[in-house]
Write a structure and sequence with these properties.
Blueprint (H helix, E strand, L loop, with lengths): L2 H6 L4 H28 L3 H24 L6 H30 L10 H15 L2 H8 L5 H30 L2 H20 L5 H20 L9 E7 L4 E7 L2 E6 L2 E7 L17 H4 L8 E5 L5 H9 L3 E5 L3 H10 L8 E4 L3 H7 L4 E6 L14 H9 L1 E13 L7 H13 L2 E6 L6 E9 L7 H10 L7 H4 L21 H5 L7 E2 L47
Parallel strand pairs: 5-6, 5-8, 6-7, 8-9, 11-12
Antiparallel strand pairs: 1-2, 2-3, 3-4, 9-11, 10-11
EC number: 2.5.1.16
Function: Catalyzes the irreversible transfer of a propylamine group from the amino donor S-adenosylmethioninamine (decarboxy-AdoMet) to putrescine (1,4-diaminobutane) to yield spermidine.
Organism: Natrinema ejinorense
Length: about 550
């Protein structure tokens, strides 16, 4: 097509419908990741389910649309657009409840998100699949090949626009409900345009009804009771869903539906989550805590650790936090204040370490979530880079989320093996009496050390750290068996496979001041053969508690 022909080109109504169907189908596919992630995470299995369902639904729609193409008309396409918009309203209103219902199905963890994706996005994507063969039938092009090629090109261009606009503009700017509402309006507007210039009463009335349904669905919000507390702040960032929720005097940061950090509003310096106390163990392993000058945290969250280090020690704290919205939320809701001693770098942690010429006495890796782990931060090459950026007696700590033994421990044992490959000496600490999935602190020293619990206990008594770590020292784990797990490298880091057994298990985050924290209910049904709940370990130092199988846990 010449430039003159291109400028003179005016799309027909069917061609416009094909373009819009491409925009909305790909936009919904990108949006699906955000809707599904809080319940099922955003692992390769979740995205595999999303891509599989969308491709299968579109293929089925193409096939059925091709069989019925001889009956194609603008009015029929108008009804298809309206039907799709109506289902989008259902997704806006009932997505949370549908996700909970779908998560109750007894499926293996890696397939758990498949029913939810199918229920929420299968029907609208199937309907949109009818548009292309209908448009090809109504095309003014000569020949089947030219007509089909023209339709494929328009649909693909629409998909590019939908993917780009949703990824780079809509998600960072609008909430999920508003994006769904926008797609619904676009579909209704296209459906209405297909009936012009003749204004038929039935499509017109249906268009008005669907618009009202969309507005009501977005206005009322998802039909689900939020048991977590009062939502103080919620946004969709470029990387995840972020929520700040108050439950009494405790404020919690949720990232993609998972608890990440917490603060006591009445006593802000208190460690609400037990595992954050372990961030101070490196100060027992350095030669002299008074000589510690530079500390790096990779991952900010609610900035509990960085704020604590700045407050307790005379050190410079750098924080590499990739998501600027996380830092903004910490400043607005978790009392984070940057200063000459605490600097936030909006940058990927590995990239920051690679580019900096500063060495650190302590590096804390706190960027993992239960179902979402940045794979490039788990690999041997990153661990070796961290080791190079430490001072001679420097200490590295990784906050790993996994079970300490048995089912669900594969990721911890592989991460321990990888860290131990990069560092001379490695230690680990459990943070809960339960043998369920929990925060496990893996600590490694650049120097060749052989600390015993007694030696660390003596240092804890003699060093004025402003925090008593005697209880944390008692939770030392024995060296795990790593024969059946790989060292994670750039060439081979099967993190999703290693985490597969943890997806459906309870995640225990112990809170200070509680006698015993019950496991957080799993959001996905647990397979009967996987021990989901185990009895508390009688003593924390007994690290090989025998798991007791239980019934599947669902909500």
């Amino acid at each position: 097509m010449s430039m003159r022909q291109l400028t003179a080109y005016r799309p027909t109504k069917p061609e416009g419908a094909v373009f819009v169907s491409g925009v909305t189908s790909m936009g919904l596919e990108i949006l699906a990741g955000r809707i599904i992630a809080p319940q099922f995470g955003s692992s390769i299995y979740t995205w595999g389910s999303i891509i599989t369902v969308f491709l299968a639904a579109l293929s089925l729609g193409y096939w059925q649309g091709g069989k019925r193409a001889k009956t194609a008309s603008n009015r029929r396409m108008s009804w298809i657009m309206l039907g799709t918009a109506g289902y989008v309203a259902i997704v806006i209103y009932a997505s949370d409840q549908l996700l909970l219902s779908a998560s109750a199905m007894p499926l293996p963890a890696r397939y758990a998100s498949l029913p939810a994706v199918l229920i929420l996005f299968g029907p609208p994507t199937y309907l949109l699949g009818f548009i292309s063969p209908y448009a090809a039938e109504l095309s003014q092009k000569e020949g089947i090949g030219e007509a089909s090629g023209h339709v494929y090109a328009l649909g693909t261009i629409g998909s590019i626009v939908g993917a780009g606009a949703t990824t780079y503009f809509l998600i960072p700017t609008l909430g999920i409900d508003m994006i769904g509402l926008l797609f619904g309006f676009i579909l209704v507007g296209t459906a209405f345009a297909l009936t012009l210039p003749t204004l038929m009463p039935q499509p017109a009335a249906a268009s008005v009804a669907i618009v009202l349904l969309l507005v009501v669905a977005a206005g009322i919000g998802p039909v689900a009771f939020d048991h977590r507390g009062d939502v103080v702040y919620q946004t969709q960032t470029a990387y995840q869903e972020l929520e700040v929720i108050d439950d009494g005097d405790e404020r919690t940061l949720y990232l993609d539906g998972a608890r990440h950090s917490a603060m006591d509003l009445e006593e802000p310096d208190r460690h609400v989550f037990e595992y954050t106390r372990y961030f101070h163990i490196p100060m027992l392993m350095v030669d002299d805590p008074a000589e510690v000058e530079n500390v790096l945290f990779i991952g900010g969250g609610g900035y509990t650790g960085p704020k604590d280090y700045e407050r307790k020690y005379d050190v410079n704290v750098d924080v590499a936090e990739l998501d600027p919205e996380v830092t903004r939320a910490a400043k607005d809701h978790f009392r984070l204040e940057e200063s000459e001693n605490l600097t936030v770098h909006t940058e990927d942690g590995r990239q920051f370490l690679r580019d900096t010429d500063r060495t650190y006495d302590v590096i804390v890796l706190d960027a993992y979530q239960k179902d979402q782990v940045p794979i490039h931060l788990t690999q041997l090459e990153f661990m070796e880079l961290a080791e190079q950026r430490l001072t001679d007696d420097g200490v590295f700590l990784a906050n790993v989320i996994s079970a300490p033994s048995g089912a669900g421990s594969d990721f911890y044992r592989a991460q321990y093996k990888t860290i131990d490959e990069a560092f001379p000496s490695t230690y680990s600490y459990r943070t809960s009496n339960w043998n369920s999935v929990q925060n496990i602190e893996v600590v490694a020293t650049k120097a060749d050390t052989d600390f015993t619990e007694a030696e660390l206990a003596e240092r804890n008594e003699n060093r004025d750290l402003g925090i008593d770590l005697s209880g944390e020292i008692d939770t030392t784990l024995s060296e795990p068996n790593t024969d059946d797990v790989p060292v994670l490298t750039e060439d081979h880091a099967p993190v999703e496979n290693l985490q597969a057994s943890t997806i459906g298990q309870e995640y225990v985050i112990e809170q200070t001041g509680e006698e015993e924290t019950q496991p957080e209910p799993a959001s996905i049904t647990i397979e009967r053969e996987l021990p989901a709940v185990v009895r508390p370990v009688p003593a924390l130092e007994a690290v090989t508690a025998t798991p007791v199988p239980s019934e599947p846990v669902t909500i």
